[in-house]
Automatic annotation (TrEMBL):
This is Uncharacterized protein. It comes from Vibrio vulnificus.
Amino acid sequence: EKGRRVTARHIRQLDKDGVNFIEVPVEYIVGKVSAKDYVNEATGELIITANQEISLEALANLSQAGYKKLEVLFTNDL
């Protein structure tokens, strides 16, 4: 639901239901943190590193490199 935080309960339910990924708008990903390194396989260039904040530019570079999925870390904003 828009505007609601994902809680541990939600994650347990998603896991129970076998959900492996969630499609989200680009605006949701900008500012989140990458869970792993992403490399442009054609050039060998490191696009984004693990634990790096994701910028709009990095998302564009990932898209140009052919990435359609991105793993992000979810942190509690408390």
